[in-house]
Each structure stands twice: as structure tokens, then as C-alpha cells.
């Protein structure tokens, strides 16, 4: 697994980790906020907007409980274990590293996420946890008409290529908004693959334009009252008047609230020749910043979204703050794009996943556009937020924040 190293918060271990932090492991480096790198959850905060003075583990409000199991305390114990491994100089996996930022990773299988590090803990409550994660929310089977479009392309490209008359017929037969969106997405995607170019020879920008962009531009950036911020749009993360942390996602989708641009979706893309692994860490940090912004804007039940593109393999995610100090990075779907022109059998699964993402992002955009006001719930959520001790930075080396 890809590794990151950090500068420690305490003077006792700080000197040892400066040496480690200066190393670049697998091409990944970090920025460190030593003021907020802490092992326990009872330290005093210097920023009352993002830190509660202490975490009272006896308080029931905001805790994630299923039956007799308090998942909140289980996850906090997991984080403390990961912190101790960090102090001891041990290697940390991506899921462990995310926990240091209070981000807890839940994938679709429960084997390689935080549950995989806690064997047996979730066995008796697996069904209840899955219900609470709502990974299938807004997911539905494609209508038969859209399945027929996918099958036509799959059959045609398995032999040679789709004929122009077949593509035109697919557009003309589309009936209703969803079918029309699907037809447009498939036509744009097929137009990129018609020449059957080798994806392995493409640079990252060309690869993105060839594969994910036709679906993104048709199904995501066309969401009502949302717009793409463009490639490498700057995401500035304020740090108490010190140096700003700057990230540049490969793509960001925003909406507006009283003239202010509010991001709610981010995407990181890697061409098939990689390297893979680091973008999940990066996108978890980006999504946390977006989610904190929605909490600050008093959005009810805020959820933000992201996608990690590693070659033709794509994973979609959502992040919420349903429980205090628990940023849940929840994988929604895992799907593939065609590797070549004869591989269009995978597009049905891709469309299902993208339509789910479209529906969920639309809900968040609608909540933001309502111009919400503070309620007891949104006020409580502000106290549940936590700072991030580190930010992945893939271009500018290690920066120490005094």
C-alpha cells in the first residue's frame, strides 16, 4: 500500500519524524498541521468552530450505535491504534492513514476498509451497518430501452464497429429524459472508441477525454443548477491564518449559494499506466473539505461525492458526517469502462453507477440551493467537525505549518 509520513505534534517525537516526513515514498508527500496531530480526543482546541474542547464519550447524542455496540468508540479506538503505529514508525495503509484525519473508509465488500482491520467486530451487526451506509441509495436497474442501447453497441462492436445508421437510430428512438441522456452518453463514448486507439499509449489528459469525460460531461456536469469548475480548479483550504493548503482536483462540480461557489463533487484521474493508490487519500481530503463547507453553510444532512479513476476501473464515493467526529468515506460502486472498442459489454454497469451518482448529487445541489438556515441539528454538526492533521500534496513537496 502507498505510504505517507508525517511530522509529529509533540516535541518528544517531532525530531524523529521530521526525517521521515522529508522522505518521498512512492512519489507521495504531505503537508502537516502539527497543531492538530493528536492521539486522543480530549486536547484543547485553538479553533472553536472546528474542534470541541473535549469529546465526552459518555454522551449519547451523535454517537453511532447498533444494538449494544458503540461504533463511534470502536472507530476512535481504531484511530488511536493507527496513531500509535505512526508514533512507533510503522507503515500505515491508506485506510489507516485516513483515520488520522477522522476519515473512516467503508468499501463495498468490508474486507479492505476499516472493518478489515477490526475482524469480528461488525459480524453480528453487518446488516444494520450496511443499511446505515445506504450504498444502494438511488440505485436502480436500467430501463429496458437503455439496456437495448447497450446491447446494440456490445453486439455491433464485438464484430467490428457500429454503423452510423445504428447510432442515429439509437438517438431517434430515445424516449424521455433518461433515455436521451443515455443515448447521448453512449454516442459520445463510442465516438472516442471508434478508432480503437491504445489507451496505454495515452497521457492522462488524453485518456480522460477519451474515457470518463464523455460520461461525466453528459450525466454529471449537466445536473440542473450545477456546473463544472474545470480541470485543476484550485481548492483552497484555510488553516487559521497560516499558509493555505492548496489542492487541484482533476475535476470539480459546483453549485452556487448567494453568489458563492460551493463544490459538491470531485474526481481524480490516472491513466492506465498509473501510478495508482495515492488518489484515494487525496480525494478523501478534498471531500472532507467540501463536507465541512456544507456544514458551515447549515446544509441539512450534508453529503458530498467523489470518483477515483484508475485506468478503466472507476470507484464512486460519498462522504457524510452523520455521527460526531466520524467522516464516513463510503464507496458506492465499482465499475469499468471499455478497454477497447470490442469491450462495450461493460457500459451497462457504468451507466447504472453514473445515474446513481447523478441522482445523489442532484439531491445535494437542491439542498444547497435552498439557502438553509441554522437549526439545532446543523448547529450540533458544527461541533462534530475535526481538523485534518495532514493534507496529501503530490506536486509541491512537504510544507511544515508552524
Q: Can you give a write-up of this model?
A:
The protein is of the alpha+beta class. The chain folds into 2 domains: 11-131, no CATH class; 144-387, no CATH class. It contains 12 helices and 14 strands. It has helices at 11-21, 71-87, 94-99, 126-133, 144-159, 164-173, 177-193, 204-210, 212-220, 278-296, 347-369, 376-384; strands at residues 29-33, 65-66, 69-70, 103-106, 227-228, 235-237, 245-247, 251-257, 260-270, 303-310, 313-323, 326-336, 390-393, 400-401. Strand 2 (65-66) and strand 3 form a beta hairpin. The longest helix has 23 residues, at 347-369. The protein starts with 10 loop residues before the first helix and ends with a strand. The model is unreliable at 1-30, 38-58 and 394-402 (pLDDT under 50).
List keywords for this structure.
402 residues; alpha+beta; 2 domains; seven-stranded mixed beta sheet; three-stranded mixed beta sheet; 38% helix; 19% strand; disordered C terminus
Amino acid at each position: 500500500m502507498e505510504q505517507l509520513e508525517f511530522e509529529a505534534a509533540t516535541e518528544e517525537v517531532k525530531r524523529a519524524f521530521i526525517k521521515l516526513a522529508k522522505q518521498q515514498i512512492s512519489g507521495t508527500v504531505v503537508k502537516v498541521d502539527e497543531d492538530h496531530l493528536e492521539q486522543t480526543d480530549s486536547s484543547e482546541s485553538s479553533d472553536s468552530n472546528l474542534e470541541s474542547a473535549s469529546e465526552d464519550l459518555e454522551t449519547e447524542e451523535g454517537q453511532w450505535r447498533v444494538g449494544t455496540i458503540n461504533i463511534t468508540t470502536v472507530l476512535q479506538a481504531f484511530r488511536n491504534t493507527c496513531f500509535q503505529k505512526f508514533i512507533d514508525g510503522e507503515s500505515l495503509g491508506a485506510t489507516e492513514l485516513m483515520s488520522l484525519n477522522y476519515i473512516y473508509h467503508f468499501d463495498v465488500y468490508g474486507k479492505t476498509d476499516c472493518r478489515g482491520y477490526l475482524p469480528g467486530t461488525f459480524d453480528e451487526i453487518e446488516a444494520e451497518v450496511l443499511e446505515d451506509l445506504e450504498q444502494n441509495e438511488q440505485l436502480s436497474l436500467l430501463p429496458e430501452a437503455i439496456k437495448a442501447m447497450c446491447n446494440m453497441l456490445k453486439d455491433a462492436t464485438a464484430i467490428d464497429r457500429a454503423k452510423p445508421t445504428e447510432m442515429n437510430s439509437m438517438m431517434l428512438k430515445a424516449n424521455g429524459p433518461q433515455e436521451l441522456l443515455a443515448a447521448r452518453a453512449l454516442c459520445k463514448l463510442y465516438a472516442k472508441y471508434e478508432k480503437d486507439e491504445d489507451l496505454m499509449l495515452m497521457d492522462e489528459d488524453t485518456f480522460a477525454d477519451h474515457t470518463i469525460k464523455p460520461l461525466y460531461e453528459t450525466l454529471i456536469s449537466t445536473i440542473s443548477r450545477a456546473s463544472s469548475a474545470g480541470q485543476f480548479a484550485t481548492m483552497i483550504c484555510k488553516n487559521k491564518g497560516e499558509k493555505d493548503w492548496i489542492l487541484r482536483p482533476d475535476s470539480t462540480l459546483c453549485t452556487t449559494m448567494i453568489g458563492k461557489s460551493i463544490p459538491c463533487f470531485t474526481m481524480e484521474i490516472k491513466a492506465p499506466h498509473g501510478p495508482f493508490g495515492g488518489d484515494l487519500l487525496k480525494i478523501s481530503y478534498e471531500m472532507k473539505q467540501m463536507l465541512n463547507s456544507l456544514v458551515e453553510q447549515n446544509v441539512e444532512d450534508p453529503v458530498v461525492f467523489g470518483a477515483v479513476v484508475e485506468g478503466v476501473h472507476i470507484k464512486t464515493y460519498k462522504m457524510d458526517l452523520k455521527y460526531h467526529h466520524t467522516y464516513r468515506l463510503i464507496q458506492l460502486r465499482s465499475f469499468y469502462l471499455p478497454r477497447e472498442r470490442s469491450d462495450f459489454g461493460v457500459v451497462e454497469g457504468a451507466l447504472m453507477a453514473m445515474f446513481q451518482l447523478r441522482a445523489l448529487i442532484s439531491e445535494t445541489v437542491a439542498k444547497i440551493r435552498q439557502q438553509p438556515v441554522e437549526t439545532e441539528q446543523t448547529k450540533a454538526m458544527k461541533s462534530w467537525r475535526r481538523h485534518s492533521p495532514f493534507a496529501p500534496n503530490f506536486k509541491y513537496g512537504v510544507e511544515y505549518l508552524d
